[in-house]
What does this fold into?
Amino acid sequence: MSTDTSPRPKSTAPEILTGSGAILRSLEHLGISDVFGLPGGAIMPFYDELMASTSIRHILVRHEQGAGHAAEGYASSTGKIGVAIATSGPGATNLVTAIADAYMDSVPLLAITGQVFSTSMGTDAFQEVDIVGITMPITKHSFLVTRAEDVPATLAAAYHIATTGRPGPVLVDVTKDAQQKSATFIWPPKVDLPGYRPVMKAHGKQVQAAAQLLVESERPVFYVGGGVIRSGASKELLALATAVGAPIVTTLMARGAFPDSNPLNLGMPGMHGTVPAVLGLQESDLIISLGARFDDRVTGKASEFAPNAKIVHVDIDPAEIGKIRAADVPIVGDAKDVIVDLTAAFAEASAAAKPDYSAWWTRLNELKKNYPLGYTMPDDGLLSPQKIIERIGQLSGPEAIYAAGVGQHQMWAAQFIKYERPNAWLNSGGAGTMGYGVPAAMGAKVANPDRVVWAIDGDGCFQMTNQELATCTINNIPIKVAIINNSSLGMVRQWQTLFYDGRHSFTDLNTGHDTVMIPDFLKLAEAYGCLAIRVRTEDEVDAAITLALETNDRPVVIDFIVSRDAMVWPMVPQGVGNSSVQYARDHAPEWEEE
It folds into this structure.
């Protein structure tokens, strides 16, 4: 027997793998360390391979939608790609909501689905669904793989598309026979994507034109969108803003892109934005839009938005420029690169004389003084939801991660938690997906095990995806969940109060204000292995939050019983101009929903 232990040259013989083995090996080469999924018949060959993996952690979810949102939370809290896996048919269609959500919010997501045998496609085979066709409008691209040898190149292409240019979801659907058959594994594969050439570097003359407009303007505003976070441009933005001295507004998707503590920050614009942010945009003479898309929730009635402002629109996606508002200076490019170039161009353009924005700041500071963000305590003896969320933010601090569902609690979390860094605020902005909060927090905690991660949820949202608490408990993912329980679909109820004469049609959920709670969230949380706390009085709030922060051996669920009459203010109703912003409900509004 030989005792020679000297290192031997690696074999150069080609590696033969099954298609499912190629999926696993490709994910490993792409640096994927965590995936979220649920097995089924059409994806079973891959799961058989995954069982032996020592480099990829698989989180078994309780519903495929949870896998999709968890992958989103993973991606949005790190900037890395998130991966969700499902079987064919209903497994794949259960991913659709999360895929659409990722598409709207530019989240890099890789969805891998199993498909029936290629020989059975088109026959309405058991659990056959054309998921490629279904997802074409809500992905950057959808692939169908029917041959084992095509797996590596397809996954490499999918990763490249999802993570470059404007990030977004890509779906790879792999037939069962492609997973079972074998082929030579080639890495790195040749990736050929004709026509896919994202523009990263902007045209220099356009950047110079934008800088010149900044020098010439008297009332400029930087309108910052989620693209700044996706491009990792927060530090560069701070340098630009400091150099220029102009005000900044951060959209719902951009909370944390610029520190809330910085005096240049006017807050969040839009339907429930701060008055200084809303009117700052409305009264501006120049808007520098950075990675924002002039969403209707920001502009209000588009034809009345910032009527006297020239527009510089910076976006990596040329389809966004001019879609809602014509741009005087269109700039296609990565936000980070453009911001760096714009900072240099402004320094050169303003070398002779710095622009004077003092009169503009006098007006904005007046708005800040007269219209501070605040709330009134409820008069029904129940808790203030705004104060609870504010205290969660104050006690947890800016290094925590906050994921929200959709509705009133989402707006309050965006308003009353102070964000000092990017990737700390996770929410469903474009799609407005109820049920996003708990699984997104779960994904964020997997990616950031050393950070405190909160899911701030409503009693309606929580009931859509709370089964993922079982996933959290079993996999040691100790998230904190704050249920802002107003026993109703709060935002719908608010609109019914304001626009439908108080006719609260089918918005009562009976979860918190009656003798019988259906469900009882404490019993539900305990059944899932969580620490469960109910808070009814103000003197219990801080103690409950502190206990949650001190508990890290299991998930924590706090059921905060809050007033159902609390409303989100300020507010610009849908279909009216931003000049109609109402600071608070001092009297019955005269708005009519359009």
Remarks:
- The radius of gyration is 25 Å.
- The chain has three domains: 15-185, 204-370, 385-568.
- Residues 15-185 form a domain with the Rossmann fold fold (CATH 3.40.50.970).
- Residues 1-9 have pLDDT under 50 and may be disordered.
